[in-house]
Amino acid sequence: xxxxxxxxxxxxxxxxxxxxxxxxxxxxxxxxxxxxxxxxxxxxxxxxxxxxxxxxxxxxxxxxxxxxxxxxxxxxxxxxxxxxxxxxxxxxxxxxxxxxxxxxxxxxxxxxxxxxxxxxxxxxxxxxxxxxxxxxxxxxxxxxxxxxxxxxxxxxxxxxxxxxxxxxxxxxxxxxxxxxxxxxxxxxxxxxxxxxxxxxxxxxxxxxxxxxxxxxxxxxxxxxxxxxxxxxxxxxxxxxxxxxxxxxxxxxxxxxxxxxxxxxxxxxxxxxxxxxxxxxxxxxxxxxxxxxxxxxxxxxxxxxxxxxxxxxxxxxxxxxxxxxxxxxxxxxxxxxxxxxxxxxxxxxxxxxxxxxxxxxxxxxxxxxxxxxxxxxxxxxxxxxxxxxxxxxxxxxxxxxxxxxxxxxxxxxxxxxxxx
Length: 419
Ligand code: ATP
Ligand code: MG
Description:
Strand content: 15-25%
Radius of gyration: 28 Å
Bound molecules: adenosine-5'-triphosphate, magnesium ion
Distance between the termini: 45 Å
Structural class: alpha+beta
Helix content: 25-40%
Number of helices: 15
Shape: elongated
CATH topology of the largest domain: BirA Bifunctional Protein, domain 2
Largest sheet: 8 strands, mixed
CATH architecture of the largest domain: 2-Layer Sandwich
Strand order of the largest sheet: 1-5-6-11-10-9-7-8
CATH superfamily of the largest domain: Bira Bifunctional Protein, Domain 2
CATH class of the largest domain: Alpha Beta
């Protein structure tokens, strides 16, 4: 029978790679914890309407990339394509604003977008993200960006650049939109069919189009920064002052708009260097979305957040994190009743906090030691009949081949020294 395969663009994460995932997830948890963010876990499946209302009907995600379907009861559902809309839905549904005026939340989990798979671009991918809900001040924007930058630094990833921009507020949007329509209308011959349609539906999205002709046409487009209100302008300047306080270097990128409709004021990206990422250079995307809470039925609430693509971080980590696998011991037995003794010794060691493997079935010592070595164990414990009568075992360093008899009482301690 033909073997079944997982869905195109989706991947199994195998044990040989999982230590890197744990490393990234644990580092993220530790880092955002230091800024006092707490984890929130929301369902992977949400009402389709949440994303249509939250992300915007004319965004690429909603138009083309969403896994949406009706279930057997005809409920319109979607696999979440990103985390923010779900977090805000949960924030509202659970009245988190009644507990505290400021909510600091983070999440880690799989997201789903039906994109064309490529290096660093998958149909199920993982994001880690954080949201700071309830603070209007640019100090919040700076903290969010600083946290993202510090996280990348914690992982030892170098040569990243930080791009920031401001999309202004509700006063900016219509005026900037008008300016873009005027500008791009003259360049229609150079635009792809999607972007010609976007001229009517969502001209801002043209600046986000990756098609060469559109990118070229957009290069000389009016700058959103010329359309900022005084308040938004001051917010953006203050943010830059704070970023200097955090010692973060950044570029102002007036052409950057990001792919979601909900952004207001600050948006930012962190880009990684070169070939490791293929065509996908953005590892972190984020920004302020002051309109989203209201859009989803709550009171107007200032909010800012970011999300990382974990797979893209992994591409940049390379082999560097391989040493993170945890060490373990292997208990081999010899003679009669060998597996029994192996199980007893192994269990004693596990209770002392040591990771231990056993052979499961009887076999020659040579075969068992070979297995221990091949499995990557650091030490082997030979629980032979003679030593065992003396409440002792033989401890073998699998790297050097050195052996010594060790009393069971001090065994865990001795193993720890060798690990
Ligand atoms: P891109 O421009 O690469 O499509 P995006 O603007 O759609 O990114 P966001 O929605 O802001 O990305 O998501 C934040 C991060 O999530 C991205 O910077 C990236 O690291 C990661 N990401 C987004 N889409 C994918 C995907 N299909 N596969 C893997 N990672 C992804
Ligand atoms: Mg995208």
